[in-house]
User: Fold these one by one.
Assistant:
Number 1:
Amino acid sequence: MLTMGSLPVLTFICVVCAVWSLGHGQQVGYGYRLVSVDQGSDGSLIGSLELIQQTNTYGPDIPHLRLYVKHETEDRVRVHITDAQTKRWEVPQELLSREQAPADLPVSSRKAKPAKSAFEFSKFAGGELIVSFISNPFGFAIKRKSNGDVLFNSSYGNLVFKDQYLEVTTGLPATASLYGLGENTQPNGIKILPKEAYTLYTTDISAINLNTDLYGSHPFYMDVRNGGISHGVLLLNSNGMDVFYTGNALTYKVIGGVLDFYFFAGTSPLDVVQQYTALIGRPVAQPYWAFGFHQCRWGYKNVSDITNVVENYNKSQIPLDVIWNDDDHMDGAKDFTLDPINYPEYKLRPFLDRIHANGMRYVVLIDPGIAINTSYGTFQRGMADDVFIKHGGSPFLGQVWPGAVYFPDFLNPKTVNFWADEISHFHQMVPVDGLWIDMNEISNFCSGKCSIPTNRSCPGTGFPWECCLDRTNITATRWDVPPYKINASGTQVPLGFKTIATSSVHYNGVLEYDAHSLYGLSQAIATHKALQNLLDKRPFVLTRSTFVGSGSYAAHWTGDNKATWEDLRYSISTILNFGMFGMPMVGADICGFYPDTTEELCGRWIQLGAFYPFSRDHSNLASKRQELYLWDSVAKSARKALGLGYRLLPYLYTLNYDAHTTGAPIARPLFFSFPQDPETYAVSKQFLLGPGVLISPVLYNKTTSVNAYFPKGSWYNLNDMTMAVKSSGQYVTLQAPMDTINVHVCEGMILPMQRGGMTTTVARMTPFTLIIAFPLGFQSTGGKAKGHLFLDSGEDVDMKIAEGKSTYVDFSAESDGKKVRLVSQVESGSYGLSQGWVVEKLMILGLSKSHLSSQIAFQLDGKPFTSSSFTYSVQPLSTSAEQSQGGGAIMELNGLALPVGRNIDLSWTL
Ligand SMILES: *[C@@H]1O[C@H](CO)[C@@H](O)[C@H](O)[C@H]1NC(C)=O
Ligand SMILES: *[C@@H]1O[C@H](CO)[C@@H](O)[C@H](O)[C@H]1NC(C)=O
Ligand SMILES: *[C@@H]1O[C@H](CO)[C@@H](O)[C@H](O)[C@H]1NC(C)=O
Ligand SMILES: *[C@@H]1O[C@H](CO)[C@@H](O)[C@H](O)[C@H]1NC(C)=O
Ligand SMILES: *[C@@H]1O[C@H](CO)[C@@H](O)[C@H](O)[C@H]1NC(C)=O
Ligand SMILES: *[C@@H]1O[C@H](CO)[C@@H](O)[C@H](O)[C@H]1NC(C)=O
Ligand SMILES: *[C@@H]1O[C@H](CO)[C@@H](O)[C@H](O)[C@H]1NC(C)=O
Ligand SMILES: *[C@@H]1O[C@H](CO)[C@@H](O)[C@H](O)[C@H]1NC(C)=O
């Protein structure tokens, strides 16, 4: 319990002049003093801060601040600082529900204890984080109880708190490895590097732009320190911000809102993401089919065009689950319409009936901008319901693909209903299986306040993305031109550049200035809700713009990338970052969005892309076509990589379950499984799927080998399980012929696989194989492996263990070198039994060569096991380039029919 009387009072430390200047000798702020502290009724601590000295740089300082600190859980502490007198903007509870910091408590009128100097408090006896303060100038620090490590210390700079400028700096040890702070394309890999700018402000800038603010805003970072001890830090704030990292300090410069820090204690990287998603919401459950392959293109001219694409995939025997339309199906790029010539309903419907009958799905794009057209129903209803974002009392005018548009305001509950009704109308005409919400940063082809030209048509004859509205000047209120310029678009453009004016107003008077980066989140919530209510199935929504918490509603792709080898490489860091942001369903446009791809690049890209959690080929209107069947070599790579990917579907789908229930990313950096190995901290050209499937792609042209890092242990090649790497924690050169990507499974894993198929619908009903990976050539040291499996219909709204609806199985195997035993423990088995799923095959990897000639006796549930179809074989592991020191063997048990829904206890002597 918090007992103020017994707080250890540390020696008074005067932080002499941590003076932070602008480099022009201009002082931004002098900081605050902590004048009193008191205990809140909720077990929190509430402090009063008083300004030390006023400056006018970036506006006047706010004189009185309220500090609120609460240990919300054993491993999470919140430090919230706001104006003590006036309510300020915070991320709305409707978008991100969380414990509320109390409304202004009359701290000063209560008998608050004057803050003497510095002290510490910790509410929970078992809590791992300790908050301490220095009172003059005020600073707070977060310390880890178990090892005393200081995780965050704001005394490295003066706290600055003005209406439109907040600044806080923490010191960091030079050895810390930082990750996160996106969305950002990081050319130098996944680690946050000193001197690279991190600006967070949602913007329609393509992913080819390096180190600039892109489509999403995620003010979260993970800090991995010596020995892999990790923690996370979220600054929950939706205003634009610059974050600067120098290598030994990190400074936030934020243009509004409040300082609302959450610290997550870890201590493993996985713990950090679990704790982070416990706050912001667990990742949404994705339908089974979403893990199949998706084909899209901007420029599918008509229904026969997409019909041919689907047929060609089938003819080429390349798996395909989902066919997409960008905006080609629309009438004049208007949402919820069909082009009457090229995509008439009477042609599209039979096509959809056919693909649905073949177990495939269809997804289309919608943009937020609603075309201004009095004969367009969606527009009429939107006007009638008054759903649009306003400026000066009337809807804010912008221009996107259909021409002049208004933007729905998803902060308005009426808009959420309007949106659901439009989706429902559309669905009656076009039974889509999911929706793709694009351009929701919001993207606008014009800037500032405009009007519809009266003397010419708009769009006119120019490119559709050229502004054709009459421009008045960019609006110039303090919301449009704040005193501090964040590095928007990497060039300090005005906040309203190519988006809506930040002086625009949402429901309830909320300023676009504050809510700008929340637009994509608010639209994803509305779209997710609409689809779920309509279909009574698990919705699939793909969104471009994201914020903290978007992963609870939608998947993400990395946006417009380039068909280059560099972009192929960059995709990995962005995907891994989104896993840490609680948005694990993510991928990049396979083969590149534009310009023309090349055969070799596309072949290597599908090899990698087959293992993106979200695997979609997408290209631009002006690029050459890039469907995977167009080149024989690419088709061959696709069959091989997607073939393996489709056999791994039960593993991937179980990772979807793990993500949904614990937050664990699907694609993970290597350090998630090997946090004690510092060599893994910067690995950005390989990644793990789940805890132990290592993807080592070729990322350079004219290359047929890959120098891959293998953390300590035995790794088995999933393309040829007789090949293994026994690593002491080292780089190994692997052969990577043009049609092959290296995929390895780590010792200790039991990997559930199936036979695969041309669609996930077919693949998910096939018999199972279990890959049991023991350490290579183990003898008396023994071997252990484990894994688990979640099975359900693949599209129930709820994804959870429920009798008759789903089945969960824990597998474990062990061997002492003389005997092997595999045990499964089934929870809620009836669903698995009703579907007739069986394990047909076991592959036991890593047995010793001495097992080769053994006479083997099998026992099932303690009784001798015989079956007419059952066979087994043992073969040596290859001693090729992927050398197996000491040799080893692989044992295959085939022709089994062990029901997945029933406990298995199979053992045999070697
Ligand atoms: C935080 O930094 C200040 C200034 O460097 C230092 O005096 C103080 O001891 C630090 N606090 C902790 C908990 O390390
Ligand atoms: C569909 O579009 C393609 C490509 O532009 C064209 O060749 C074909 O004639 C069109 N088919 C129909 C039925 O309109
Ligand atoms: C592929 O084509 C075959 C033969 O026409 C057909 O039976 C099968 O249903 C098709 N599969 C898919 C997924 O379209
Ligand atoms: C308005 O919408 C109608 C119906 O969708 C369409 O035919 C017409 O071309 C549109 N008008 C303009 C100016 O885009
Ligand atoms: C149309 O009107 C605008 C604003 O009055 C003017 O700037 C522009 O030159 C006019 N364009 C034409 C083609 O007359
Ligand atoms: C636009 O800006 C220019 C130069 O800043 C100014 O002269 C002009 O009056 C402004 N026009 C409007 C309509 O505000
Ligand atoms: C803004 O970002 C760009 C792109 O990373 C960078 O080159 C530039 O130095 C940054 N400018 C400032 C003022 O931080
Ligand atoms: C392949 O790489 C070489 C250099 O390694 C470069 O000169 C060449 O342009 C690249 N070709 C393509 C198509 O990227």
Number 2:
Amino acid sequence: MVAADLPRTRRPAEAVAMTNRIALVTGAASGIGAAIATRLAADGASVALLARRRDRLEKVAAQITETGGTALVVPADVTSEESVAAAATEVHDRFGDLDLLVNNAGLMRVVPFADGPLDDWRRTVDVNLTGVINVTHAFLPALRRSAATRTTDLINVSSIAGERINPGMATYGASKAAVSHLTRTLRAELAGEGIRVTDLEPGMIGGTELADSFPTELQSMVNDLRTTLPAVPVSEVAELVSYVVSRPRNVNLPRLIIQPSKEV
Ligand SMILES: NC(=O)c1ccc[n+]([C@@H]2O[C@H](COP(=O)([O-])OP(=O)(O)OC[C@H]3O[C@@H](n4cnc5c(N)ncnc54)[C@H](OP(=O)(O)O)[C@@H]3O)[C@@H](O)[C@H]2O)c1
């Protein structure tokens, strides 16, 4: 075959309709989670929004419903098994079986390990890792039932920090390394059932509250970096998730990195 025989245009893979899909996004009160939830709802999915702050979730839900989307506010703490179990019941009662779970809730502390209060390190692991385990465990029965008949996705938002050696981010990086490992192993365990699993590793993303609890000096360093790189906007992460979940049922993107072009 010569070049002239090749098709001039490649037919894009047919995107799967998002209408009728039932999604839950954790950490949907702000930043990446709010953007993903809003985008999935705009694509046609019914979306449950989970985080601790009810008022912030209600604002995101109002934006979704004002534009004709369907949203359910589910205030919960991912570190609490009981809270997550109650959320699972509420989502099931309102929407039925979930077929799209985005574990996105997380927090970051940036302090040299020796200086950080032990409670901060425990909290980082509790939210970033145990939270993913709690939520995945609670919703897995629904995901399994869904996968028997329809496209089903589990997406865990990890971080490039899970692979990099960043002084000040030992526990955050360790929690994200664990999330990525958990995700890749879950993919191996669940692929046979048709559950698509994606480990999503963002670099520096702008428009989020992740650095809001940092000391002022560190916060302004992060803000400077976000401006000069510039950081990837949350809408691009949402766009990527929208692409991943709308692939034909037999197509899975197991691991994705998204970061600013100038971030190394
Ligand atoms: N921004 C970045 O550059 C970047 C880069 C790589 C990875 N990430 C990851 O992306 C994810 C989202 O972060 P973001 O940047 O969008 O930050 P963010 O704006 O601070 O969002 C974090 C979300 O998690 C929720 N959350 C925190 N603790 C929770 C808990 N115990 N239970 C339930 N929800 C909880 C927060 O809502 P409530 O406070 O209301 O609970 C909030 O909605 C995180 O996993 C983060 O590690 C971010």
